[in-house]
Amino acid sequence: MRRLAVAALLIAAVPAVARALDVPVSGYRLTLRARGTPGDVRGRSLKLVVKDPSLVAPLPDPRLGARLLVNAGAGAGQCQVHLFLDPLYWRALPSGGYRYAPKGLGGIRRIDLRPGLLRISAHGSVWPCDLSAATQRAPVSVVVRAADVRYCAAFGGTVTRNAAGRFAARDAAAPPGCPDADITVADLNILHGIFCPSDTQACRLAERVDLLYRWIAAAGCPDVVTLQEISTRAANEVIGHASTCPFTYQVGFMSLFGVDDAIVLSRYPIATFETHLLYKDFRHVAHARIDHPSGALDVFTTHLASGSDGAGAPCDTDCPTECVAAGATTVRECQGVQVGDYVAATHDVVTPAVVTGDFNESPGSFAYHQIVDRGWADTYLAAGNPECNAGTGVGCTSGRADEDLSELESPASNETERIDYAFLIPPLPAAFCAGIIEPNGDGDGDGTATRIFADDPNPFAPTCGALPDPICWPSDHEGVQVDLNCG
Predict the structure, then answer these.
(1) Do 330 and 360 touch, CB atoms closer than 8 A?
(2) Residue 43 has what pLDDT?
(3) CATH code, domain carrying 340
(4) Neighbours of 64 (CB within 10 A)
(5) Closest CA to 70 of 294, 269, 267
(6) Which domain holds residue 197?
(7) Are 304 and 358 a contacting pair, CB within 8 Å?
(8) How many domains does the chain have?
(9) For residue 201, what are the contacts with CB-CB under 8 A and spacing of at least 6?
(10) In terms of Cα–Cα distance, which of 50, 49, 31 is closest to 129?
(11) This model's pTM is above 0.90
(12) 3-state secondary structure at position 204
């Protein structure tokens, strides 16, 4: 009951997200500069000019709220700027526009928002872009939100310079639309099937992956899909289906053991991908930094130890100091501590982040609290969904048999506990994306809701079951999906 009460408070504390009116605009000129070494703050600057009749009077009043996003990629040394534009430094102009003169706050020297014109100049030691990457990602996206209007430019056009220390572009046509900055994620432990009878082909793995992608498409093709229990065979199947959606998913994957690895699928480019081993050097957490329209998006996914690899064994004489300090007494508890510590140390950008996976622990457990006690939300509960009911299977994600086909070919749920999660690390105040968890349902109609994922017996066939019928479930688990609104 306490957990449900916390979820209700989370929903009550979150304001409704006002959807912005999007106005794509053509870019006249953008220049980004830096000089010296990456640590040298001298000579960093931005000059932007937009001339477009879409900037029509009456203009929205930025004193009601304004933000700036410059996004030239999520890689190291690529320009990424999120700024809250303080209403105290805006003033109305006789021309019907507004001027922002914050005396260098955030590196901004001046912004003019006038009918037909948007001009921004920034320079100084606090302007964050050192441009140390060999190139910036083009087009460079620039979004200014004033009150309930987003003005969006994309500086491709004529790119006259794109090298370390300098980016210059001009005459960029207005983009087809403003970037879809909302963040959608789905997660599932897919079941590698290595313990299934050999004549079942890893418990009909190829069919299960095909069914998984049907669920992905039905969920609106989320921006990111995270999967655990990836064997070498499962990796080949998952990667082979990556073009199922109208786009081809980018794949973040590193084969460590060929048995229980993780995959991150992303609609957008993956700037970096790495894995970090946990206590006992088999379980691990994967980290992808994604070049998302809302900014650099960190996605972490993990699968903590099960009974088969000593989850409940004591954290012994080799127990890491951080686990001892946190009070962990078992292998899995220690791994929970390490996941929380690794995510906290690695997530160093202002944008929201998502931590997904099969924790093999129910809400209220020690490992669960290593995450939520940091202020990171269990998105399923925060959206107002009901806790797992073992009697009906509603809200549960685990419990089906995983060593044969008996329950994968049965339309009964057979799920009895909730151990799979998508946790949200909220953004810092400067972030362009507010990272609001969409309440229960699909209010914005994008096909992705914050709820359990793949939780019905094969809805894409009239019947399901043993061969020759289609299989009922893609896994012994059900997953979770989450929709984060940026506003």
Answers:
(1) no
(2) 84
(3) 3.60.10.10
(4) 11
(5) 294
(6) 2-14+181-485
(7) yes
(8) 2
(9) 193
(10) 31
(11) yes
(12) helix
